[in-house]
Amino acid sequence: MASVKCCDKFGARNILGIILMFLASVAPTARSSGFYADNGLQQTVVVNRLPGRERREMQQEILTLLGLHHRPKPNSLGIDLSAPKYMLDLYRSLQQAEDDPLHFIPSPNATVALLPEINTSDVIMSFVNHAGKIHFLRHERDKTFYFDFSEVSPEETTTGAQLRLYKDKSDHVIGRRECQLEVYRIRQGSDPEDKYLQSEYNRTVNSEFEGWISVDVTRAADSWTVYPQTNLGLFYRVICSNGREIDPGRFGIVGRKGPEAKQAFMVGFFRATMELHMRRTRAARRRQNTDVTYADEAAESWGWGQYHSQYSRRACQRRSLFVSFKDLGWQDWIIAPEGYAAFYCQGECSFPLGAHMNATNHAIVQTLVHLMNPTKVPKPCCAPTKLSAISVLYFDDNSNVILKKYRNMAVKACGCH
């Protein structure tokens, strides 16, 4: 278990260490763990005897490292609804762009993937419309939107937000006419019963246009993130020639009684602050430092430690490790992927350190000193030299769909440090 105890320059004593710790904690008569690891014979095999208590602890640790306090329990899992369908399309586009950037062609429904907010965001979240929560405008619910921001942390910076409306071709507006789509933020007045409208965004839309309309509502989303109590929803109207207001439905905009695949929703782009990243990293390290002793004891108890001790005598290199979300029983809230290849680093950093070991100059010097005095200076550690992020698409408790990027989750390369 030397790889668990070693630090690397990325400070990656995070989920990979937690996973390896529980791989050591195998025992008879237990359930499938959801992990698939290198068996030392160039084969990847299932680690399938994780005790129930340790399994639950492991799941909670991973949830915490994913930034979740508990396992989400969404009320609805309609993947064909407008917001989940859009987010799944976006996820697939991002995966294709990452896998084959030279030949990537975004799908027509995921043009948002080209927006700069994508690259600067850690979290992309869709919000379903809960217009029924706006009681003071209950007679105009097809003109109002309410999006629940309770799952958004005030420590996350809003980098962008879009209100997405679907418009059919209008049969009630004769000829090619352009109308103004005016979106307002509902604000609280000085009197508790007093509400007023603050202009958020205006856009010109042709009556014959058919498809999704994107409206920039970044200012509203930013205000609701920092000051949640100001979230009273949005209101919109359609103004055509001569300043005449027409019903949005007559203009072709799909209302709440329209097809589910065309329901309005919001997409928000958020970036976690450095303070939030550091706090999560410190918490993960504290948990791991506490639990490594237990992992070592379990490894010795069940013989896994001896196996890995022999296996680690091979040269330092990347080993196979696959985490299956499906086998963990999380398919009811994780939409994609079914799992991911985490990999891990293990092996000896012995003299001479070949080029394939990606050894640092310091590691080479440390190896030479270790040869002269093994009791004073230890060997360098086999640790990750390059880590990559993964993206996970999942439902939250409010059935909103979240696409979140998690840094330093998969090992790309190993070396001696």
CATH superfamily of the largest domain: Cystine-knot cytokines
Order of helices and strands: HHEEHHEEEEEEHEEHEHHEEEEEHEE
Radius of gyration: 26 Å
Query: From the structure provided, what is the oligomeric state, counting identical versus distinct chains?
Result: single chain
Count of all domains = 2
Q: Which CATH architecture of the largest domain is right?
A: Ribbon
Estimated share of beta-strand residues = 25-35%
What is the overall silhouette?
elongated
Concise overview:
With 417 residues, this protein is of the alpha+beta class. The chain folds into two domains: 2-68 and 282-416, Ribbon (Cystine Knot Cytokines, subunit B); 130-263, no CATH class. It has helices spanning 2-5, 15-24, 52-65, 82-99, 218-226, 248-251, 274-302, 304-311, 361-372; strands at residues 35-38, 44-47, 123-128, 144-145, 156-167, 178-188, 195-206, 211-216, 234-239, 245-246, 265-272, 317-319, 321-324, 334-336, 339-341, 344-346, 382-395, 401-416.
Task: Describe the structure in your own words.
With 417 residues, this protein is α+β, with helices and mostly antiparallel strands. It has two domains: 2-68 and 282-416, Cystine Knot Cytokines, subunit B (Ribbon), CATH 2.10.90.10; 130-263, no CATH class. Helices cover 26% and strands 29% of the residues. It is built from nine helices and 18 strands. The protein has helices spanning 2-5, 15-24, 52-65, 82-99, 218-226, 248-251, 274-302, 304-311, 361-372, and strands at residues 35-38, 44-47, 123-128, 144-145, 156-167, 178-188, 195-206, 211-216, 234-239, 245-246, 265-272, 317-319, 321-324, 334-336, 339-341, 344-346, 382-395, 401-416. It has a seven-stranded antiparallel beta sheet, sandwiched between helices. Strands 4, 6, 7, 9 and 10 form a five-stranded antiparallel beta sheet that branches. A four-stranded antiparallel beta sheet has the order 2-1-13-15, with no helix packed on it. Strand 6 (178-188) and strand 7 form a beta hairpin. The model is unreliable at 1-15, 21-31 and 281-312 (pLDDT under 50).
